[in-house]
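Our collaborator T.R. sent over the components below with a one-line note: 'Predict the complex.' Nothing else. No constraints on interfaces, no templates requested, no preferences about which chain binds where. So this is a plain run: every listed entity goes in together, and whatever single assembly comes back becomes the starting point for the next discussion.
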Amino acid sequence: MKNPGLKTLGILLICAAAVPLVLPGPFYLSIATQVLVYGLFAVSVNLIAGYCGMVSLGHAAFLGIAGYAFALLTTSTGWPLWAAIPAAVGLSVAAGALFGLVALRTSGLSFLMITLALGQIVWGVAFRYVDLTNGENGISMPRFQGLLANGTGLFYLCLVVTGGCLALVTILAGSPLGASMQGVRDQPRRMSTLGYDVWRIRYAAYVLSAGIAGIAGVLYMLLFRFISPHTLSLTVSSEAVLMVIAGGLGTTFGPIVGAALVVLLKNVASAYTDRWPTLLGLIFLFIIVVVPEGLLPGARRLMRTLGAHLATRRGPTAIPATPVKEARP
Amino acid sequence: MTAPTAALRIDDLHKSFGGLHVIQGVNFTVAPGERRLLLGPNGAGKTTLFNLIAGDLRPTAGQIRIAEEDVSALPTFRRAARGIGRTFQILTLFARESVIGNLIMALLGGRPQRWKPYGAVATDPALRREALEVLARVRLDTLADRPVSETSYGEKRRLEIAMALAQAPRILLLDEPLAGLSKEERGTVSALLAELPRDLTILMIEHDMDVALAFAEKIALLHHGRLIVDGTREEVIADPRTREAYLAQ
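Returned assembly:
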């Protein structure tokens, strides 16, 4: 396998497949499923923020649009799941294509503010358009049948979908288009001079990112069977950005690590203290100070430093007489 | 079809930032294959003029023509496709990439392949071979796999030039290619510039007068955004306005 990221992903997916066998009960299995769903959402934010350098504060809109569309199509109009799922994701992509035309006229802080405004507009529609969205009360869905009826089946479905999307993002990141996105992130002016259409590259990434957020939105509905304006709120968008920053901006698996951190704190720590957001804040402070590049790349750096330190302490006598193959990072 | 008489033609070009008139009615023509030096004291508008030609800035008025085609309204990437390549005064390299990684980015810029969402860009043998050929022209092929962050300033300057050459430009804009280099590195880069093919039109901003005057066939002198002298090397040097505006400073 040429792409080392795919190899790592394969190993991680095999390990993750054993999770339902080792977790003590349905509560923890539900948390593991939440990690996958929020992790996928964070992957979508990472695609635009990490690979393109455009931090969005309105991505919950795409999660919510797909979630609402899925709920309304299946409950109000009676669409079957197989038809409602692509329609919901398609709507999210269409919203991304539309919002991108507005938001990508700018970059940096202005882009952040426009995405925030667009996200708030969608939130406002969900909140005020009571006839369609049921306002603050939200929309509940009935229990699903078959594979989706039990936690284990749902976990494996989320694992396959999230794993599939991660594989696609991994392939994309190593491809010419992925290299273009990262080039646009690092040197947009140079990229224009080299003949790259910076706007189009950002637009492609933004629409793709909206599509992945839409898929996460459908998984969200399969898991929670309830959606309200809170799902599209600024809190959800900023949590996703925090997940990405905590795990490692522009890394393949960082968003999943970040999602695991936030979801675990939300669900586990909140059982012991009401002040779990304070704990979350302290952890983020720790991350920014100790591993500003994020947990995953930070851990790699610390391991390298520790290895070098140990090698120095052992001294020259510890160096083997015969050369050994250098370990892969 | 006859060949264009001018590789680059600037007609009555103006650029203002609010009330600040940075470029004021500049006119000049660069013939195909010509080596033209753009001189002027700091703040004369040289880099702004480069930015206008490359498309980073839009003119307030006037026209820019490449091979007689009006490109004034075209964005930067479309002008690159029409043959404008450039280097920057302040290095703009992809610092996380290797030397060859930077070159591959430059090669991909003008090709439809840049939109391919699959396949490994780093290990493409054809791209790599082509990139090595361009690196050999600036004598960086032996450092191909070295991270850019581990190269010297002079090597980075040469890489900037290599990236512009990888685009196979018709007009090359060199913005102070010798800035910050040691004497030895200046010699290396000057030799590289002298080896560039004659069909390539070059417009250069440079403050090292020895190298610049040896390189240039014609010189345009800018002062306060106006083109005050334009002519052959000897004409510009002999012109008293040159001494007044630039050489005396």
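Summary for T.R.: The radius of gyration of chain B is 18 Å.
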